[in-house]
Amino acid sequence: MTTDVDRPRPVRPSVPLSDRVFRGVVRAAGGTVLLIMGAIGIFLAYQAIPTLREFGWGFFTEASFVPDREELGIAAVGLFTLQVAGVAIVIAFPLALATALYISEYAPARLKRTLIAALDLMAAIPSVVYGLFGFVFLTPHIIYLSRWLSKYLGFLPFFEVNTDVNAASWEQSMYTSSPFIAGFVVAMMILPFAASIMREVFAQAPLGEREGALALGSTRWGVIRSVVLPFGKGGIIGGTMLALGRALGETIAVVMILAPVFDIRFRVLENGGVTISSLIALRFGEATPSQLSALLAAGLMLFLFTLVVNTVASMIVARSRSGSATEI
Amino acid sequence: MAAPTLERTVVEAPAVVDDEPRKRDLSTTTLDDVLAALGSILGALGLVWVLYANLLPTSGTLGFVVAWFVVFLMLYAGVTAMRHPRTVMADRVAAAIIHAFAGLVGVALLFVIGYTAYRGADALGYGNFFTSDLSAAGPLDPLTVGGVLHALVGTLVEITIAVAITLPLGVGCAVFLNEVGGRFARPVRTVVEAMTALPSIVAGLFVFTTVLLMAGLPRSGLAASLAISVMMLPIIARSAEVVLRVVPGGLREASLALGASQWQTVWRVVLPTARPSLATALILGIARGIGETSPVLLTAGYTTYLTFDPTSGPMVSLPLMTYQLSRSSEAVDQSRAFGAATVLLLVVLLLFVIARVVAQRSKTGRR
């Protein structure tokens, strides 16, 4: 009799039919997504193979991109991509940091929700709008800044422009359509995105430490320096890198502004340049099979680079989020 | 007896209030704070005006503003250092810089929108801009001819197809990752996360190569929707998963403990709980899909005719129309480009307002 009571009841829940169907359906959805997404990766790699096999390392060192003449490489294109993204990050980083700090630390509590919503809205503005703005409005105005930079900071190699900066009638066309202007527009685009990630992380800085700092007589800046920034370090780095990932892949705004030039050079203020994504946008139409393979190879390189940047960034952001919840 | 006391209380009422501790003024701004900042701003303006605009051989508005700001910071720091310790000085200078930069960002972004709307107002002023396509309008025709109707219709058709593809797949995938899981979930999650890094132009190139070149389909709205879907799918799946993850596990357990099946739990408990934030995440994903130009550029083709049929022939959308028109050198076409960009902004704004309303309703109602 006692054995009857002590023997554990076998717990073997039978899965009802509805659940089996449900699991099957969602598993199929997951499988489909995996299939589509995986297919893209494999397809890109597979299509890029002929180009990579034919050109080998030359693909990474050759500047010009003329598939018909068997001169094919992404050295110049890749460098310009980095230049545009670099300019964008240099401009966007301090502004995004200040914006995030303002919203999380200085803004009046009433305004906060509105400002956060506005920031999200800014991040959703289509890139073609920024491109149009940069192309029509910004270019004729910003060339004066370009000229000023090259005139007084021209001793820095990347601010040099291949023209006489002191000439009385200066060549305006040398300063238009430059990686600098493209980077400037991309900066405006990625700024809200970076700021919104940073703000999210800043908002999670522990209240106890904030209050502790204030109680010890810290000023508001003291709280920021000793609590918010150390706790939000991961968010700052990660947010900037995620923004960098976007800047690398940005197409339309860059196509609208940059004039295609295939040179290996670092003069960001000078007219011309082409990024991987703008190369694809410019050349896909006239594509022969070999050219298409080359474009796909270039696209694959861009994707891989963005992937690395994004993965590292998400890891940093995720770690900073989990670590920020200290207990008191 | 009763009457005088009543009178006395009325008369003495203010005196009693006066005895109570008065509500303290919690604002930390003092007159010194305000005057130091204001004085520094004005002093810097005067100094820069004399030096920059009159004495030194310098000119230009941007330079003036930058010089003004730098001189202001120096004056502000100096004025503060005379009466306060260094920590206060650092605090004030940092606050000034942060406020200035944040203000700059706000002004710049508002200016982009304002400028676009201002330039677009030329075209938007004509009623025909919303009711006709561009087929009858050449580059030299005035704004009284032609409009964005074809692009608006194209945008709506393309995004509808894309949503019809990505919504069930993306949400299904998120439910799978979050509710069912298992060994198979790991590779799916990894690949979805990796694919959010896919540049939109590469998504477009993928569809261009497979659908247009290999399968031999013509450039069409359908191909464009496929390209948008490829771009949107990882975004939607990922944001939906993030939203589902924050549904408290206790709700699930309670539902299962009451004897509900897993399907009933997901359908009756998890999804309704997450519905507002899920809707917000999805609408934001859709807004990104609508604004993306590069996948459409490769796959949709360009047309000036109104078409409702996504399967045959080119179909233009608002971002693509903006891009194509902006390349024309005619002033009229530029006005039209700005008009199309404004309409695009309005569509995104509308989606945003819907997202806000959905998110808001969840907080106030049904609790």
UniProtKB/TrEMBL annotation, chain A:
Protein's membrane topology: Multi-pass membrane protein
Keywords assigned: Cell membrane, Membrane, Phosphate transport, Transmembrane, Transmembrane helix, Transport
Subcellular location: Cell membrane
Predominant localisation class: membrane
One family name in Pfam for this protein: BPD_transp_1
Signal peptide: none
TM regions (residue ranges): 28-49, 74-103, 115-143, 180-198, 243-262, 292-318
UniProt keyword Translocase present: no
ABC transmembrane type-1 domain boundaries: 78-313
Top-level taxonomic group: Bacteria
Protein family: Belongs to the binding-protein-dependent transport system permease family. CysTW subfamily.
Function summary: Part of the binding-protein-dependent transport system for phosphate; probably responsible for the translocation of the substrate across the membrane.
Name of this protein: Phosphate transport system permease protein
Taxon lineage: Bacteria, Bacillati, Actinomycetota, Actinomycetes, Pseudonocardiales
UniProtKB/TrEMBL annotation, chain B:
Stored InterPro entries: MetI-like, MetI-like_sf, Phosphate_PstA, Phosphate_transprt_permease
Pfam families per UniProt: BPD_transp_1
Xref: CDD domains: TM_PBP2 (cd06261)
Subcellular location: Cell membrane
Keywords: Cell membrane, Membrane, Phosphate transport, Transmembrane, Transmembrane helix, Transport
Membrane topology type: Multi-pass membrane protein
Entry keyword annotation includes Translocase: no
Residue intervals passing through the bilayer: 34-55, 61-81, 93-118, 148-177, 197-217, 337-359
Domain ABC transmembrane type-1 intervals: 152-355
PROSITE patterns: ABC_TM1
PANTHER family for this protein: PHOSPHATE TRANSPORT SYSTEM PERMEASE PROTEIN PSTA
Function: Part of the binding-protein-dependent transport system for phosphate; probably responsible for the translocation of the substrate across the membrane.
Protein family per UniProt: Belongs to the binding-protein-dependent transport system permease family. CysTW subfamily.
UniProt cross-references to NCBIfam families, sorted A to Z: 3a0107s02c (TIGR00974)
Designated name of the protein: Phosphate transport system permease protein PstA
Organism the protein comes from: Kibdelosporangium persicum
